[in-house]
Amino acid sequence: MSTLEVEDLTAGYGDARVLHGIGLTVGEGEICAILGPNGAGKTTLLRALSGMIKARGRVRLGGTDLAGRSPDALARQGIAHVPEGRGTFMPLTVEENLRLGAFVRRGRDGVNADIERIHGYFPVLKDRMKQAAGSLSGGEQQMLAIGRALMSRPRLLLLDEPSLGLAPLVTRELFRIVQAINAEEQTTVVVVEQNAHLALGIAQQAHVLETGRIVLSGTAEQIRADEQVAQSYLGYR
Ligand code: ATP
Fold first, then answer.
1. Is the Cβ atom of 36 under 6 angstroms away from ligand 1?
2. Which of 11, 133, 157, 229 could serve as a FRET partner for 70 with CA atoms 20 to 30 Å apart?
3. In the chain, how many domains are there?
């Protein structure tokens, strides 16, 4: 089970509180899009969920209470975070980056099979295994970052602005692959994305965050149909 339940989540930096009582539920195997203007707290929400920053409130994944756990413990519980800027190790090869992604797993069993599985999603990485990650294009680096996250066999995948800096064609391909991963592995996905069209295109549900609070929630269709969202994030009406 990998339903994500978040209740009354509060987080920030030092004395500055950024998130104020966030509540949301993402059903097992669903994709949830988080939309909102710059500075709304979207990245902070993902950081709180993966334990990168301390948060108060309740977070459960598959019914297990995860509040207050360390990033390592959360990774072992199946939470994988692909941060904005991707977080790949540039001097290391593609293969080394992928193998590092398996570090949270107890056994080494199946690592090679998982690398093959990731090549299935991202064939371009197969041809680049011995290359330094830093020599990859932006799109390939994003694929590597997602591939590395998949090496931990996550139950919950947190994606922060996967489209950042990528050409529209590359972004569309990336979102298609995220959708395939979600469909094939039943991985629950929370995606923060400026490109609301794309995010709503793959998500079942979405939340709009403004100044650290959820101001609108609904199915992707409901959010797309909202007048305010259309004006602010979809660029029409
Ligand atoms: P963007 O799309 O611009 O990344 P966002 O919705 O992801 O926006 P956050 O990055 O979560 O927003 O930022 C929310 C607030 O937290 C902002 O006011 C930001 O200045 C502040 N903030 C973000 N990171 C830090 C940090 N490391 N230290 C202090 N304040 C931070």
1. yes
2. 133
3. 1
- CATH at residue 131: 3.40.50.300
Alpha-carbon torsion (195, 198, 202, 203), positive or negative: positive
Burial 130-161 (b: 16+ CB within 10 A, else e): eebbeebeebbbbbbbbbbbbbbbbbbbbbbb
Of 50-59, 109-118, 182-191, give the lowest mean pLDDT range. Answer: 109-118
Mean pLDDT of the chain: 93
Q: In which residue are the tokens 């923060």 written?
A: 192
44 touches ligand 1 (CB under 6 Å): yes
SS3 at position 133: helix
Higher pLDDT, residue 41 or 90? 41
Quote ipTM for the complex.
Answer: 0.96
Cα distance from N-terminal residue to C-terminal residue, the chain: 40
Closest C-alpha residue for ligand 1 atom 11 = 41
Residue 166, domain extent = 2-234
Q: Is the CB of 85 under 6 A from ligand 1?
A: no
**Amino acid making up residue 76:** R
Rounded Cα–Cα distance for residues 118 and 62 (Å):
25
List CB contacts of 176: < 8 A, sequence separation 6 or more.
none
Structure tokens belonging to residue 16:
């500055």
134 CA to centre of ligand 1 in angstroms: 26
Q: Label residue 235 by pLDDT band (50, 70, 90).
A: low
Q: 38 alpha carbon to ligand 1 midpoint, in Å?
A: 8
